[in-house]
Please model this.
Amino acid sequence: MIEDSAQHLPAAPVPTRWRAEARSQEPATRRRVPRPLHYRESAGDEPRTPTVVAFGGGHGLHACLSALRRVTSRLTAVVTVADDGGSSGRIRRELAVLPPGDLRMALAALCGDDEWGRTWARALQHRFSGDGQLGGHALGNLLIVALWEQLGDPVGALDWVGRLLGAQGRVLPMSAVPLEIEATVRGADPAFPDAIDTVRGQHALAKTPGEVLAVRLLPENPPAVPEAVAAIHEADWAILGPGSWFTSVLPHLLVPELAEAITTTRARRMLVLNLAPQEGETDGYTAADHIEVLAAHAPALRLDAVVVDPGSIRGDEEDRQLAKAAASLGAHVYVAEVAAAGGLPYHDPDRLAAVLRPILR
Model:
């Protein structure tokens, strides 16, 4: 989720299923990965701790970070800053600051499994009840904003919160400027299913009943946080997804400096696919469709690995489409059980960690 004007719409309407031509003849290797209960370095091996940078926002990034901190402590989360709903939206509008909610969730995911970590993770995520001014606000949002106002430094303040929590990694905003997502949508009004409209705002886009054709950021060409660019170039692996495709994953590739860093870094690149299409944003999408949307917004992007749950592939034809889409970006496909037990559409941190650990070595 690079053309020179990646933040702008393509000149022509984008095909419904983004069937991009394969840009590489390099074959994809499809690997079915067993789900080990435990992982140990084999005798004689020296443990390696990879440096990883993960991109996203919301629950998808929370799940990925919860898994990654079981694999490495050399971890940086680069988080979208376009949320305009709920507590984050209220704080953003009232105080003219970055929306803190996705940053808070990333910090909570990096808390350890000891008593200190569990306690602070719960406190950070705690929401006040009632209909008063505090009603609906998360404590962590208020703590982050308080430190922003005290220090005048969004990155430094997040580092201080991380130190308080004992976070196993670092959380960075992708930009120091609050961003807004704008999308071109077909059928945003169900009464006019073929009409092309503009939908503005992450909250509105997440609820649109129409088909999202393309997204862009406002303001145009937002600056990236320098620490995020540096983290990408210092990483062994850069991981995109899972998460809301148009509002959490793609936006990182629409920030020019981040997009350039992601496509030019010497780090290997991984895509963790969603478990199911998201109502509104990606209704009816296959696993291959998600990859093709990514490629359409970032033509220069190459991938080394794609991780997908077998439950996300519906039949042999979707299997072949996924292999072709991955091959066009040069990626190996790793098929492994990473979903939570019981058929829930959530990544299980332990399962995902067990799959990521041998890949990231």
Remarks:
- The chain has 13 helices and eleven strands.
- The chain has two domains: 1-37+48-80+216-361, 84-173.
- The chain has a mean pLDDT of 87.
- Residues 84-173 form one domain.
